[in-house]
Amino acid sequence: MVIDFEYAAPNPRAYDLANHFCEWMYNYHSNTPHIPNLGEYPTIAERFRFLEAYVAHGSGTKEEKEETVKLLEKEIKEWRVVNHAFWCAWGVVMSEDDPELMFPNGTDLEDEVVREERPLDSDQGATAADFDYIAYADQKMRLFWGELVSGRMIDDYKDGIDGAKFIEN
């Protein structure tokens, strides 16, 4: 695993774990690295396997560790929307697009989806120079609002009823 130390901060652990799981949805070596593949978000079984390994190194009884895993799963769902909002803001900041240059005639920005057209080398995928930061921010904001407004989480759609056997809300 590669760690981005430039983004290190004293974050709540659930925020960082939510970020880790969200990263599973992105293929940065594809021609569309800014588009999440919701099907790649880890299943509840994969998340629990990861969380069980995460808490295994701490102190406590087996029962306490099981409770910690359940608590982390709940906290991760709560922090994931914050994670989407952060990366949306990051995408906007990282883009060097000037809205006045992009929409010189005062076009309503709400009606436009900004997509930068840059050819990508299919073997390499996107580089920092050709990554579509605005489209990434747009996708992150869609995830943010999708989870926040609907009350349905990515994992709820993916796990369905099978998720109930792993965690009680």
CATH class: Alpha Beta
Rg, Å, rounded: 18 Å
How far apart are the first and last residues' alpha carbons, in Å? 31 Å
Let me know the number of strands.
Answer: 0
Q: What is the fourth-level CATH superfamily?
A: Aminoglycoside phosphotransferase (APH), C-terminal lobe
Low-confidence stretches: 112-120, 161-169
Tell me the β content.
Answer: under 5%
Would you give the CATH topology? Aminoglycoside 3'-phosphotransferase, Chain: A, domain 2
| Overall average pLDDT | 78
Structural class: mainly alpha
What is the helix/strand order?
A: HHHHHH
Question: How many domains would you count in the coordinates?
Answer: 1
How many H/I helices?
Answer: 6
Protein topology:
Blueprint: H1 13-23, H2 44-56, H3 62-94, H4 99-102, H5 133-150, H6 154-159
What tags apply to this protein structure?
single chain, 169 residues, mainly alpha, Aminoglycoside 3'-phosphotransferase, Chain: A, domain 2, 6 helices, 50% helix, disordered C terminus
Characterise this structure.
Helix content is 50%, strand content 0%. It is mostly helical and 169 residues long. It has one domain (11-27, 35-165): Aminoglycoside 3'-phosphotransferase, Chain: A, domain 2, CATH 3.90.1200. The longest helix has 33 residues, at 62-94. The protein is elongated and about 65 Å long.
Summarize the structure.
This protein is an all-alpha fold and 169 residues long.
